[in-house]
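Morning run. Coffee first, then this:
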Amino acid sequence: MEWLEVSLEVDSEVAEAVAEVLSRFAHRGVAIEAGPEGIGTGPVVVRAYLPVDRRLPQTRRRLEEALWHLSQIRPLPEPTFRRIAEADWAEAWKQHLRVLHIGQRVVVRPSWLEYDPREGEVVIVLDPGMAFGTGLHPTTQMCLMALEGHVQPGTSLLDLGTGSGILSIAGAKLGAGRVLALDNDPQAVEVARENVRRNGVADRVTVMEGSLDQAHGRFDLVVVNILAKVIVEMLGQGLAARLTPEGRLILAGLIDNQETEVVEALHRAGLEVLERQQIDDWVGLIAGRR
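And here it is:
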């Protein structure tokens, strides 16, 4: 069998949105290739592979239509297409992926790459195709760095909208004693459970389908990497009540012109911003009780 490689060179902040679109059509996964200088220093390449079969013309047309709709929100280049043989397909995946370093201690690597961690580093194994949180998007980076700074031995952590489970896995590997990971998407729940097992933290991380209503109890850390509108809604529905008295709320998924709305919602919930991060247009906030 032959495969059709689809690739786009885009800014890192839009890479996961492109990957999500490609994953609808490339069921064997999507790869995101960082530049030679690593994350956040320039454009990245998003690649996927479509089987060359009788359905390819229709699949390609639908894929191009989906990318066009995304480009109405954020300008995108035209995708590049090339055919590769079956014998080259597996290696085509691997040659474009590398080990990613995020913050001071977090390392994300594909399963087939070896990495000898330095003292204090935590390594997360995450393969392409885990389309909802690969460690590359600025919001994921800011959440990982916030967890790195706030997780203590035995910390309890709630991860709302867990996606691939990358934040829950990082929290457990950084020392959290109890982690609850929730997502409304059954596919994401399945992916997250597999990633949790693969990374050896299933004894500390529970993955469930659901959202705020299924988050019972209080947590030292709550991380929410979702759209700003959803964050505001959750704050109005009692998100702050899931925090222990000295707990911290880690928020990402908002762009700078949405920050005021989120900060006002935090104040209405009795919380104030204690720390702020920004990468490109994306903002991360860490809040606690007043």
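The CA atoms of residues 7 and 47 lie 4 Å apart. Good start to the day.
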